[in-house]
Amino acid sequence: MVILQLSLPTPVNPQTNGAITGLTSTCQKRLSKFHSTLPPRLLITNSHESQYPFSLFHPANEGVAAIVFGDGSESRLYPLTKRRSAGAIPIAANYRLVDAVVSNCINSNINKIYALTQCNSASLNSHLSKAYSGLGLGKEGLVEVIAAYQSTEYEGWFQGAADAVRRCLWVMEEYPVSEFLILPGHHLYKMDYQKIIEAHRNSKADITIAALGASRDQDPGFGFLTVNSENQVLEFRLKSESKPISFVSEETSRKCNDIANCYSSMGIYLINKDTIVKLLREHFPKANDFASEVIPGAISIGMKVQGFIFNEYWEDMRSIEAFYQTNMESTKKANMAFNFFDIESPMYTLPRCLPSTLITDAVITDSVIGGGCILNRCKIKGTVVGMRAKIREGAVIEDSVIMGSDVYQMEDIQCGMNKNGIDIPIGIGEDTQIRKAIVDKNARIGRNVLIINKDNVQEGNNEANGFIISGGIVVVLRSAVVPDGTIV
Amino acid sequence: MVILQLSLPTPVNPQTNGAITGLTSTCQKRLSKFHSTLPPRLLITNSHESQYPFSLFHPANEGVAAIVFGDGSESRLYPLTKRRSAGAIPIAANYRLVDAVVSNCINSNINKIYALTQCNSASLNSHLSKAYSGLGLGKEGLVEVIAAYQSTEYEGWFQGAADAVRRCLWVMEEYPVSEFLILPGHHLYKMDYQKIIEAHRNSKADITIAALGASRDQDPGFGFLTVNSENQVLEFRLKSESKPISFVSEETSRKCNDIANCYSSMGIYLINKDTIVKLLREHFPKANDFASEVIPGAISIGMKVQGFIFNEYWEDMRSIEAFYQTNMESTKKANMAFNFFDIESPMYTLPRCLPSTLITDAVITDSVIGGGCILNRCKIKGTVVGMRAKIREGAVIEDSVIMGSDVYQMEDIQCGMNKNGIDIPIGIGEDTQIRKAIVDKNARIGRNVLIINKDNVQEGNNEANGFIISGGIVVVLRSAVVPDGTIV
Amino acid sequence: MVILQLSLPTPVNPQTNGAITGLTSTCQKRLSKFHSTLPPRLLITNSHESQYPFSLFHPANEGVAAIVFGDGSESRLYPLTKRRSAGAIPIAANYRLVDAVVSNCINSNINKIYALTQCNSASLNSHLSKAYSGLGLGKEGLVEVIAAYQSTEYEGWFQGAADAVRRCLWVMEEYPVSEFLILPGHHLYKMDYQKIIEAHRNSKADITIAALGASRDQDPGFGFLTVNSENQVLEFRLKSESKPISFVSEETSRKCNDIANCYSSMGIYLINKDTIVKLLREHFPKANDFASEVIPGAISIGMKVQGFIFNEYWEDMRSIEAFYQTNMESTKKANMAFNFFDIESPMYTLPRCLPSTLITDAVITDSVIGGGCILNRCKIKGTVVGMRAKIREGAVIEDSVIMGSDVYQMEDIQCGMNKNGIDIPIGIGEDTQIRKAIVDKNARIGRNVLIINKDNVQEGNNEANGFIISGGIVVVLRSAVVPDGTIV
Amino acid sequence: MVILQLSLPTPVNPQTNGAITGLTSTCQKRLSKFHSTLPPRLLITNSHESQYPFSLFHPANEGVAAIVFGDGSESRLYPLTKRRSAGAIPIAANYRLVDAVVSNCINSNINKIYALTQCNSASLNSHLSKAYSGLGLGKEGLVEVIAAYQSTEYEGWFQGAADAVRRCLWVMEEYPVSEFLILPGHHLYKMDYQKIIEAHRNSKADITIAALGASRDQDPGFGFLTVNSENQVLEFRLKSESKPISFVSEETSRKCNDIANCYSSMGIYLINKDTIVKLLREHFPKANDFASEVIPGAISIGMKVQGFIFNEYWEDMRSIEAFYQTNMESTKKANMAFNFFDIESPMYTLPRCLPSTLITDAVITDSVIGGGCILNRCKIKGTVVGMRAKIREGAVIEDSVIMGSDVYQMEDIQCGMNKNGIDIPIGIGEDTQIRKAIVDKNARIGRNVLIINKDNVQEGNNEANGFIISGGIVVVLRSAVVPDGTIV
Q: Which biological process terms from the Gene Ontology are attached to this UniProt entry (chains A, B, C, D) (predicted)?
């Protein structure tokens, strides 16, 4: 399975193939030249016909289209990614992970977003097609999903992020953009992309890479960069324990020893349209990955690559534990690292029509509660309770993530038989106790169950029985059935 | 102010004016004859052009269009109706009152609804235009709002429900319906209208009136009816203390003494299209009201009027107290009279994109909690907490309805100055206690406020200070500002 | 019938009533002060709750909300306005008149529009609620329709445009706008409102009035203004043949004799929110009209009123003839005064799902053809053919406007009986000739009809037979039935 | 490239693997048992969360979900399928091919449609996600697109239609359906699927196959069937010239010689949900295709397979010529085989907001004209002119399909340089003549071009120069540039 993670550390293919500059690319050049001198509003849709045949660009971000990758961290977030892309994982009760990046785009006035998806993409595609509706300009939609597809020219899957962009360029390049903003879709952070756009244009860069201070935790897959005082990238390398790969620009050969100027890439690239067309079609037509191939290649051929340093909250969910911690933080108002209530840069997601949450005789502390829950005489503490969760009498939930349900059940249609032939309905059963666990959607937890990681296991796979343990956190699988009296 | 309540007890005007049967009505007759013998799907939209030029009828309810009145009980629900129609009052946190009737239509497969509005209609019109979107067939929408309007022929407001229907007939009659279902929009109940349609058609009635057992509490404005064993209405009268008006059909002169066969009208009429056209245009062209004029008139000229007896939950919100009690019942799972979680006949409303509710160190019992609330270290019991409600540290809320807010505030933009020049933000302030009260939307309750009806007042108007008392319940007005330390 | 035409020449009521500055208006002032110094994105919705609880403003037009009046020219465009507001009249086949002004707003990045309607508003309200969907930010919608409504405070209709704004202020003022842009909804022109906003802010005006060179044809109802070299309005007067009313600012007493500096108002006002609140509530609480009362009043109390001169195409449709001419121009590519194909400032309307137009053996020259027409063996020249028009064999149409139909008919359901008992279907019958006529929607023109104004009548009313003649143009009424062989 | 054509003639794999009947399938059985006895409305959504958490089924088609395949005939319709699936090909100006099948579903009251796509799916996915919006019940949408995706279990593409259904079953089976209706998405016909559903249920069949009289032209890939007098399928075989494969049920061994009872399959299967689960998971877990593997396999193990004979218009577009002929027929009212104007079973597609078509001094006969065209002084005869087509002065178009453009161009941004350095804009150039050709979207045809198949070539590939010839029809490729003076 090829994950479009923008980070495969494969060798560079700095091939320069012959001129494909035919009519199309000439046309594009002329278009973009035209574009830079004319008023913002342009004319064009592409093969993806829309209801309104026109599109508006707003001055601030005129001409920037975002390319969001739905995949990433798939294996590291297993089993949450068993049936869904990383971007589709529910977070903080009402959201899915990808909502963070799409909301950043909306709040940055970027209204053309392409989402490229491939792995377990069914629920992510469905979410992206329906959410944010009415937020774009025209029904053409804010988000255009391009699922991996076969064609006569390419019969294979996308072979990496750069390959995916290359194969979808024909769709995206008809749109009169001046730059593409490439974004991993499974990171949680708030960034006003208008700032990186401004910095990019001011520096007349070919590529600008958003980067974090290297001292912070980081996703090593995106590589490291050293910049000079003008934030120009002097060196870009992928960290590799045994044998660090290092791509040094002509200008310098300094090592990334100078910690003050060394940053880790966030996998976010702002690239001029002309540049990306040339890089992917002419210079590196076989490169599959940005971090290991296209970016170092661009430096090596003398392109101007800038760094854009970002010092705020950023979380890449690179493990079950990181995902768990992020949810835990959302329940604590005091030190909320990522503010889901922020009115200046709100989070958008699928609007829903759910009943109010009904709480009968429960004690709830430090928790986030989604819509449409039914919480009966239970105790809930430090927990994220997702939509339509049903928690029954006597249950005690602490420091956990209960993802809730996609479904309301009529009690008569209870499904899932335990040993004694008694049905177990969706939700958390009577007198069950759960501590430090993640319960995925539609799980059916019986009565008197204890999910407390009794033996303090750190890592364990018991998928056959419906759960695994990762970093000491019990993860109950989607739609799992946990019989009455089970003790974990 | 003329309220379209279907119930004004004015004298009948059984005028039969001359034949207006011209081309149009001939055409209508032919259409409806055609209609009864042909397959369900017909062709027509009316002057309200829709995106899709076609409409589908489903067999069960083929040819029935609903006419919902947004007004009613306005004065009796004051001050909740100060700025809104009765139908727009928020209920059970996530809903508005009119959602109940519209959801009944949706669940009865009626997909053409006209909403006739006049009083304080701004927010109701807005809600009806946006909610339920995507639920209808075609963007023409489930609900077509017809606000009162002036024309060259009629310069006045709608003079009552019958007048409103008469004046909008030209819009509604182009649609190929066979019957209209007239519905007050401010009642709370669940009814499968397919049953009344079936009964109506089986009995070949001209009009069928839904009615409750007379022993129940009822809205006297809709009148009373006595039926025979075939449920034919023998007598229809408006209760009037001093001088009961009684309309007796030719067939009988029995009084409504026989309590077993005497019912109170729910103000719900299923009327054949031909019948309503004739009644409003020919027989009673000056009648303004159904209960006092059109219905008794129809009986008096020998039309077949049937009763349809309804024995389930029905609440007409005819007082602040009734509204309060209905909310209180929604917080108690055991004896929930109206099930907002019913999956077989769900409630529909405006889909929303709200953050999850954040509960930090709160104790919540027997309450209904809307989306996007922030509840900090407070105690909430037996309370309906509406969307975006912010309840601050130390607050204690019991047996109340907190309607929440339309708005998120940045704390810096606090508005509303109290005597000491300290801003009071939207929400409930620190250490405030509220018991048996209704707090309307966007109210700003300060710190250390006591809203407990200390002096046990039953009725009182203190609108200048932002509240009234009705039936012993304190009602804080929309956007009211209650200074720190206030005691009510 | 009170038409919200912004132009009733009634006397001024320069009453200054006492301070209503209570909590609310204090709050508003603070809000708008805050607003001017803070980043664009604010927080607030108003009582009209929306799906997404946040709204975005774009820098260019930050804080401007438009107020569009749907009424105007009603009597002058009769009978096209018999059942609809002027704004709802179909124009150039696919559009309604109000689309021009709303499209100007969209193309000027104004995404909050209030439409105030009262006269014959049913179809206009319906159009405004459905069209442009998905073009706004959030389902709150681009356009918020506020139909005239009754309340406990005001039982009457809107008494004029100023009264309408005053009564809806409570809805509109919660929104964090800095200026309101007041727009008549029945004019045809293209204006980038961002330019008037810029001029207004640069001049620090209280009010800016858009105006045309006085030598042009103009709607006299909006008044005339004289400006100095800085475009400040020195004098504003309503032209009144007998006795010119003249409001002279303190600064000057020059007459509007200096033709070079004398302009006619377009009825477009950009007014600061604080200013409008004060004018309508404090200074002139009984003024009903802008042109005759509020604007001259504002000048008289020393407010800074600027002119914004507009020199491009503008048509106010002040007669059937003007409406007819405008349609005729849309069929001529060479001298198209108003370009409906303009890709830089496109026209938006209700997206539709219509079949392609089917043309069998027809000769069509210099015509505009809407969607879903069926044109069989006919000759069409210099004609606007609206949606779903059906023109039958042998028909000859010249220099006319055929508005088409809202409806497809099954041929079996033909309606409308002629003398010989033969049904006349919607559309234009066989061998019928039409020249210089307007045929309103859903008309049923029989066979061998001649609509050619045979006797060259200039003005005539034959409404009983389904047509009138105005300025030599025959206007066939909506849904009229014209029997076979009729000659007009 | 694997095309999901339901027709690959590969050998059967009648493997019966062991019982996978675990919890899930038990649950399903119970659900469907429940389903058969309960009222229509059920409760459930699946992993594809929707805005409204409930779904309605209508009695007639209760419990039927459609599965539409977007791919098919890809190679046979090349080059129209170079960048798009067969289902996405424009037809009759305003539609795409897949609209026919989706409209059949809508008109048959089937409101849950899964579209499985894989080949060149970008534009088809985009169309399916946007079109028909507001036609479903709830924003969950009428159509749920499931693009081919990678997962940890399956890394490959869908290997055929049966494999695609198997891999998406986990998504589709949570929905409480009783039968799946499997539909090729690239056929043009009108069928009321309610009739096949009724026949299927009456005969208590496991599978019902829609079939055409064998004497008609047919797609041989779907196979042939012989039925008895009760329409039970006695024999099913794939036609294979050399060696006919024949699957004979136990009941009989008659050959399909009896022409009267021999029919050709339309590739439409109505299959009980339990049946399909068992067939794909238990009996034939490795079968990739329905026609060659699953259907004959089902017969061989004794399942009850019925035929449903369909005698109306059906066109499978199995060649460029067939596609061309279908378009030609749409221009002839007299013998229109497929009525795009049918008001009883209308065609639905993406609603659009296009300008009216402007025709200046043109002569148009027997043609279908899409929205937003500009036709200047040209002659058009027997031609389908697609949306936004621009045909310039002096052009003569006969018996052709001009697909139009996705785009409006500003004349200044003309693109595509011919030899002389003169730009060629999108559309048909001055004095160009086109006869019996298909011009795909966004093509740029210069001046004085002759596309008349001068040499009467039957088959030819000149893709480098922007066209091919198939069956004597010239097909100009999407976005091709044809220089001035070119003669084909």
A: glycogen biosynthetic process
d(CA D329, CA D325): 6
What tokens does C98 get?
Answer: 């109000």
Q: Taking the mean position of all CA atoms in its chain, how far away is CA C412? A: 38
Mean pLDDT of B387-401: 95
> In the block, which residue shows the tokens 């759910």?
A354
Q: What residues of chain A lie within 8 A of the CB of C53, using their CB?
A: 346
Q: How confident is the model at residue D246 (pLDDT cuts 50, 70, 90)?
A: very low
DSSP annotation of B220 reads G
Give the residue from chain C lying closest to D357, CA to CA. C369
Is the predicted pLDDT of residue A40 greater than 50, yes or no?
no
Cα angle B150, B154, B159; round to 5: 90
In this complex, the chains that touch D, judged by 3 or more CB pairs closer than 8 A, are A, B, C
C58 touches chain A (CB under 8 A): yes
Q: Reply yes or no: is the peptide bond before residue C79 cis, omega within 30 of 0.
A: yes
CB atoms within 10 A of CB C121: 27
In this prediction the ipTM stands at 0.80
* Cβ separation C341–D409 shorter than 8 A: no
The mean predicted confidence, pLDDT, of chain A is 79
Residue A62: the pLDDT is: 62
Nearest-by-CA chain B residue for D44:
B343
Question: Is some CB atom of chain A closer than 8 A to the CB atom of B350?
Answer: yes
Q: What percent of chain C has pLDDT over 90?
A: 48
**B205-247 confidence digits (pLDDT tens):** 999 999 997 555 555 678 888 899 899 998 888 864 434 444 4
CA distances from A270 to A4, A210, A413, D142, D301 (A): 17, 8, 51, 37, 59
CA angle centred on A381, ends A380 and A385, rounded to 5°:
60
Q: Residue C356 and residue D410: Cβ atoms within 8 Å?
A: no
Contact status of A353 with chain D (Cβ, < 8 Å)? yes
| Per-residue CA distances from B196 to A65, B203, B251, B383 (Å) | 55, 11, 23, 36
- 3-class secondary structure per residue, chain C: CCCCCCCCCCCCCCCCCCCCCCHHHHHHHHHHHHHHHCCCCECCCCCCCCCCCCECCCHHHCCEEEEEECCCCCHHHCCCCCCCCHHHCEECCCEECHHHHHHHHHHCCCCCEEEEECECCHHHHHHHHHCCCCCCCCCCCCEEEEECCECCCCCCCCCCHHHHHHHHHHHHCCCCCCEEEEEECCCEECCCHHHHHHHHHHCCCCEEEEEEECCCCCCHHHCEEEECCCCEEEEEEECCCCCCEEEECCCCCCCCCCHHHEEEEEEEEEEEHHHHHHHHHHHCCCCCCHHHHHHHHHHHCCCCEEEEECCCCEECCCCHHHHHHHHHHHCCCCCCCCCCCCCCCCCCCCCECCCCEEEECEEEECEEECCCCEEECCEEECCEECCCCEECCCCEEECCEECCCCCCCCHHHCCCECCCCCECCCEECCCCEEECEEECCCCEECCCCEECCCCCCCEEEEHHHCEEEECCEEEECCCCEECCCCEC
Question: CA–CA separation, B257 vs B248, rounded Å?
Answer: 13
Chain C nearest-CA residue for B122: C146
Structure tokens at B190: 């669940």
Q: Which residues of chain C have a CB within 8 Å of the CB of B478?
A: 47
Q: Confidence band (pLDDT; 50, 70, 90) for A164?
A: very high
Q: Give D43's contacts in chain B (Cβ within 8 Å).
A: 343-344
Side chain identity at residue A375, one-letter code: L
Q: Do residue D331 and residue C358 have CB atoms under 8 angstroms apart?
A: yes
Chain A and chain B share a number of CB contacts under 8 A equal to 123
